[in-house]
Amino acid sequence: MDTIKLADYLFARLRQLGVNSVFGVPGDYNLRLLDFVEPAKLSWVGNCNELNAAYSADGYARINGLSALVTTFGVGELSALNGIAGAYAERSPVIHIVGTPPRLAQSTRALMHHTFADGEYRRFAAMSTHITAAQTEITDAASAPDKIDWILQQALIHSRPVYLEIPDDMPDALVSAANLTKTVAVPTVPSTGKEPQIMSQILERMYTAKRPLILVDGESVALGVVDQLDTLIKNTGWPTWSTVYSKGLVNEQLPNVYGVYEAAFGDKPAKAYFESADLILTFGPHYSDTNSYFFTTIPTPAAAITFKDSSIQIGTDPICRDVSGKDLLLQLLQKLDSTRIPKATDAPPKVVTTLDGIKSSDPIAQDNFFRLVNPIFQEGDIILTETGTASHGGRNFLLPPKARVFGAVTWLSIGFMLPATLGAALAKREQKTPGNVTLIIGDGSLQMTAQEISTMIRQKLNILIIIINNDGYTIERVIHGRNQSYNDVAFWRHTQALSYFGADEDHVAKSTFTARTCGELQDALQKVQGGTGVRLVEAHMAREDVQGALLYLLNKQLAQEKKEE
Amino acid sequence: MDTIKLADYLFARLRQLGVNSVFGVPGDYNLRLLDFVEPAKLSWVGNCNELNAAYSADGYARINGLSALVTTFGVGELSALNGIAGAYAERSPVIHIVGTPPRLAQSTRALMHHTFADGEYRRFAAMSTHITAAQTEITDAASAPDKIDWILQQALIHSRPVYLEIPDDMPDALVSAANLTKTVAVPTVPSTGKEPQIMSQILERMYTAKRPLILVDGESVALGVVDQLDTLIKNTGWPTWSTVYSKGLVNEQLPNVYGVYEAAFGDKPAKAYFESADLILTFGPHYSDTNSYFFTTIPTPAAAITFKDSSIQIGTDPICRDVSGKDLLLQLLQKLDSTRIPKATDAPPKVVTTLDGIKSSDPIAQDNFFRLVNPIFQEGDIILTETGTASHGGRNFLLPPKARVFGAVTWLSIGFMLPATLGAALAKREQKTPGNVTLIIGDGSLQMTAQEISTMIRQKLNILIIIINNDGYTIERVIHGRNQSYNDVAFWRHTQALSYFGADEDHVAKSTFTARTCGELQDALQKVQGGTGVRLVEAHMAREDVQGALLYLLNKQLAQEKKEE
Description:
Shape of chain A: globular
Low-confidence stretches of chain A: none
Number of strands of chain A: 21
Helix content of chain A: 25-40%
Oligomer: homodimer
């Protein structure tokens, strides 16, 4: 039997699946495992803490398709849980590898550190069952390769995080290398025989539609149909909207692509068209309150045909399960007779934002900030907009082709976006595709995970960080507690960040800017745009300056305050 | 019926139990609850993130006896879990209050943000069951007061964290105020009738002991016997040792108190006495590997009489359960005939460390650093030594009376100690007792939670931070991976911390020092000692400079490397 060391096996598998970097923090029970990372030609990214590492791994997976995170038993893994949960909520496949105490310690219930000193070793694994798609504990050499393959496959099938325990005495255990000749792949969904009937129903609906549209939601990534959707959108020419979650998955430069559908919070003609549509082809739906503007952007069931991972629903018919939404779309593209596709004759006009009315001396405000930032984006950019005003404003960017935007979808854990930027930037560098990486983040969120700027610097990544400094948790102020001190944060000198976190002094001087007016912002952006290394622009804005849905919340609160007077 | 709003009830209860500050981070589902914090005359400590908040609450509880932490559902609470787990492991009673979505959202399984958008609301509460002593979910006004009282009582009984869910629509629900006339208290353990027999056995053993000693371990705090132990130690005059966990609980200025017992890693005469003892009165034992020098400091069962919360064991007799270790000690102190207490005639000599042999020009090293720092400590000080070389060195401080030391006991989550310092310093300020607060922390640990320095500054706390800058995770290097790059950390400019984190520029200039030699360290300590605000001294040391048990580990690894050559 050809054998290989367990850790070599695991890391070879990760490499086969396109993982090139591993995130995490060393700890007593994972050091022997970490010995195998660099020899496997994987790059080790030592994060400042485990939550940041999990966030980074999530960001990496969203660009790369898969990622790996290594933590240590107890103290390490528990710090990462919120990041893993976010990856679950938003379907990011992260392999969470936990280095656990040696099998002898576990089987003898030894009172080791990183436990509760009560001999119980299973409680932390039990916690992770609630936030991962699958879990496995490596216990012996014989079953290890299959267990590893299975857990990796689960991550790919569900596009969600999984949990893998490796005892500290096992990284160099010899296991069979036999599996390695075949790669781990997602199994195909077997045909149910129902597909031809489904297909003719869909085609019939499409050929007879009067007011059709396409709604691309974010689970289309997990569905694996992003390229196919591009074809569908081009072939039909139908009006197409995104959600917060899917922003950037479709090419906004196409004339029929409108950006994020915002119902009552957006363009009125768009709303009128959407609400009177008789066909809404919906892909990868994800109907959380925040991804659906309080459930107002969800298509009328009668009009919708909804494609999911392993089901489809046509109108109000019963859900048809165990069919692959992806396979159906592939068939649809083959079968579609382009001569029979109706035109969407009364499609709404496309709204284009401009820099009109912005004066250099104007103070920076939500209303001008995003318009001023938009022109710096180029084809292939990754733009990460943290939960809060950054994400809300980022919804209205008009994106160049192949640009991706990450915003506040469902999990909304502030602090996520900065380490996620690190992960995404690393994945992008490995892919060697053109485009820049920009993070837009509020001052409150920044404080959660700021230390990861040092890892960006250490990894020599090219990242532009724009800090919206509006003196606290503005997103919370508009929800509740407009004047409450609990929505304040500590005062930081943001312009000192790069220096504190270890950038070269020369680089700091030419890469840090602070701006209060639109002119200052434009100057700063010009200087940092497309540059190298980590660059930082601090943009000052007013505490309660918000737009759109956030303005609606603020006004509701102001009205309530007036009533209470 | 006298009524009170739910949140007012909860916070009134916390105030009755001596909680004066509440830690946490605002989030969508706790804002309405936070409205009640300051009106209840509780001080709100907004931390930079939830893990830091949990660590802070733990530190506060260790000084104050109880603490409260408020997080938001999902994203907030999960970030705090590692801190809550640490509080469980080391018996710190933290009330973890989670603001959950409104009851309507939960009962209708609405796809709200901070969930997995699948209608399931119970998974996060399920996770906390593994790391808290008790859990309760407030669901209705009628049962709320009793549920709150019960959960608070559980925290006090077990001296461990508990989990309390308050839906976002309930803070202003009216509940009965009737319970408030009685305070929440720990119930007494009913007598089993076995106590007189136990007591005579103990007294007999004490009166006939030839080589008696007292071992005070850290769960003595939860046992509630710290003052009684002081009496016992004085009345017997018997040699007394601490553990890492209990360091500072007994007055090290007494001639019969020796500090931490380190078995083979410490003083040889101490080991000889300990191992030949015929009576070891043991209080609040906690025998993790790290708190017992790899299980070598655990008393011989035949010699030990072990006092726990609700059991006692005399020698190798069966454990006697359902008796209160505290009540037994109280009775013992009353019954003990001081004329019959044997002297410990062959007690070992007490080792006193001095500054002998240290020259100003010497580079700072583990061997001189702790000796140079020791003289700054005063009566009532709190000294927090982070896991790593800081905690190992801190074990050998000779403490002034009433000084407390916190070190690496069992949970050993690096990053804990900095926010814990914030919490401990706040509790100390509220107690208005004399003494200073000093944190000693390595550069690797510091990076985990550094942003909380800004909260220390914002709270105007008086804290001295001494950073051991030895270029990475030295503790991990000595365990495994001496030359591995995964034990490196990013380069930071530590002397810029106070400025970046918002301290007044004037203050920064006179409160930040960096030292490479013993003379520089002494100068810096002199300047910052007993000062106000947050002060910072960076002490450079060599990467592999370690002592004691850590040196043993390093040498083991060096020997292994030699073998492999």
